[in-house]
Amino acid sequence: MTNKAAVVAVHRESDHRFSKGTADSIELLQGLGVSGDAHLGATVQHRSRVRADPTQANLRQVHLMHQELFDALAAKGFTVAPGSLGENVTTVGLDLLALPRGTRLHLGRDAVVEVTGLRNPCSQIEDFQRGLLKEMVGYDDAGTLVRRAGVMGVVHRGGTIRPGDRIDVVLPEEPHEPLDKV
């Protein structure tokens, strides 16, 4: 399946900080994540997950968010730039939240990220901008919890990705499994 999705910006941060610095390119390492990023590793690297069980597989190696979310937030008065919310890859033209679990995103020439689930935003988002957490997590008209903070994935195949790179989507075999928090 091919679409007009693209990479808007790429980010990494060697320290555990809320926001990530924008880079000209990032290198994805198979089974590990983003080279030079604090969340690089085969086992969990997010502090809360390490405290709970440091031997868990790292299903959160790469964080992707969509520019369309930032645009919608701007319309509500929030100022959120790519990398501000800690994502590694900012995308455009792709409904990340609607992808099924196991979707493979081909980023640029070589890199492939397999989508593992939804990012479960934490209270640090509220510290970043008051009222933002309510925009990132809410309920739909049916009362179902909706997470809007992007998706997480693992690096299936390594490679370099840059702003402007095309994103091709390969869906898993049916039946499709909806995304849940990871």
Automatic annotation (TrEMBL):
InterPro entries linked to this entry: MoCF_Sase_C (IPR005302), MOSC_domain (IPR052716), Pyrv_Knase-like_insert_dom_sf (IPR011037)
PROSITE patterns per the UniProt record, alphabetical: MOSC
GO MF annotation list: catalytic activity; molybdenum ion binding; pyridoxal phosphate binding
Superkingdom assignment: Bacteria
Domain MOSC: 21-170
PANTHER family linked: METAL-SULFUR CLUSTER BIOSYNTHESIS PROTEINS YUAD-RELATED, MOSC DOMAIN-CONTAINING PROTEIN
Identification of the protein by name: MOSC domain-containing protein
Species the sequence originates in: Arthrobacter livingstonensis
